[in-house]
Amino acid sequence: MTHARWSPRTLAAQALGRIDEASRAVVPPIHVSTTFLRDPDNQYRSGNVYGRADNETVREAEAVIAALEGASAAMVLGSGMSAATAVFLALAPGDHVVIPKVMYWAMRNWLLTDAVRWGLRIETVDTTDLAALRAAVQPGMTKLVWLETPANPLWSITDIAAAAAIAHGAGALLAVDSTCATPLLTRPLALGADLVMHAATKYLNGHSDVIAGALATAATGEFWDRIRRNRSMLGQILGPLEAFLLLRGMRTLPLRVQAACASAMELATRLANHAWVADVLYPGLPSHPGHDIARRQMQGGFGGMLSIRVRGGESAAIATAAAVELFKRATSLGGVESLIEHRASIEGPGTPCPPDLLRLSVGIEDPADLYADLDQALRHAHP
What we know:
about 40% helix, alpha/beta, Aspartate Aminotransferase, domain 2, single chain
């Protein structure tokens, strides 16, 4: 299949249209072998040497992700954290790195503890403030700028193209965690990023049954080769069954993302006028401070994630989450089922998350039902 000829929706639905030559199956087989036969002259012309680095099912998932991102190459790993940390482990002790103040809490925690002990110099900054970002990046010293947009769980928006210009002007790489935007809404590489990362557990898989991570690169080279070598040496490759389930999930990615975006927009609009909601954090609302940038760099919707701040503070927020019937009180996001979570309780001390905030991952249920569930839960918490 010629990738440039077809839309992302078509590429995802057909998983690039590959047909298994041996069986003529339209669904690719799962390759589980851990080792591979050498040729008589002791070569490996198949390209497969050992399962810690080589697997055909994994390569098929990578090919779909690369096509969706418009990337030169892609790589899948055992989790989103595995994919993200792989980028930083390809740096050298002493390298200066700039990260957002608001980002996925587990990654931030790892960077400010383990990565610092390993020798990276980590600086946090409000990446939505381009002047502050420019001041934080040190020409010749900063090796990587890491963005997350929309940023979990406040859903702030960073201008990727402007950040790329700042990073490249200082000789640094720009990497973007685009988990919540997905390749269907934002393609960071087309906006100037060097790397894009996904917690593929979320929207790419979309069924809450696979732990996986993905990286895609604008260009292969020494840095990408270091990441790939680390994946092999550290045993970070995704298993073949998980790669197969990821492939299967990506076939419905456009339909799921479209449904989630539409429902999230409807919920955000209605909740913004709810008596017991103090604020709605969603980049699709014109009142959101990053709305204009999001409208420019997100195509086809503003994502399926939003947060609400509940009137009455922390106790009212927790009581609201306790009273839902359709929403599930659970960590994670991007699945077909809608989830709700009191993030400050999860993130603990040092979180930038207000105690009255509830994070919502909007699934593919009827949005009228989802609103009714939230409405009754909010009223239950405010008798």
